[in-house]
C-alpha cells in the first residue's frame, strides 16, 4: 500500500530523495520524482521540506553526517591521543574512499550538491575539526602533543591531510602507493605535534 502523508517522515523522504538522485542525477531529479517514488503528492513532500533547495540541503547534510557519526566514536576511545588521531584520520580517508568507490554515481551527485550547499559543507568541516580539536586537546593535556593552541593545530592537521579527504582528490585515492603516502603524511604530522613547542 502506498504511504499516506500521515506516515510520511522526513527520513523516508530523504531516503527516497537519495534513490531518485542516484537514478536521475542532480540536474534532472525533481520533487515530483521524489513524491512519485513515495506514492504521495509533491505537496506532501513540501510539508516536510519547504523548497527543493531545502530538500537538497537536507539530503546533503544527511550524507555528510554519516561520516561525522562514524568518526565521533573514535574521539572518546580508551586509547592514547596518538592512536586516536591515527585511527580518526584513517577512518576519514576510508570513509571518503568508500563513498567514492562503492557508489561513484551517487558520489558524483553529492559532489554537485556539496558545491550548492556551502553552509552545510562548512558546518561539516567545523564538526570534523572540532572532533580533531578534542583529540589534540587530550594530547595537549597529557603532554603527548605539547601544542599551545589545539584548535589551530587541528585546523592545520585537517588542511595538511586534505588530499586524503577532499573530494577534488577522489581520483587519486586508488592510485598505487596512496596508502603509503597517507601513512607518511600522518607520521610526519604526529612527529610535529609531538615535538616540544619552541
Automatic annotation (TrEMBL):
GO molecular function terms listed in the Swiss-Prot or TrEMBL record: DNA-binding transcription factor activity; transcription cis-regulatory region binding
SUPFAM superfamilies per the UniProt record, alphabetical: Homeodomain-like, Tetracyclin repressor-like, C-terminal domain
Lineage summary: Bacteria, Bacillati, Actinomycetota, Actinomycetes, Kitasatosporales
Entry keywords, A to Z: DNA-binding, Transcription, Transcription regulation
UniProt DNA-binding region: 30-49
Domain of life of the native organism: Bacteria
Entry keyword annotation includes Transcription regulation: yes
Protein's name according to its UniProt entry: TetR family transcriptional regulator
HTH tetR-type domain span: 7-67
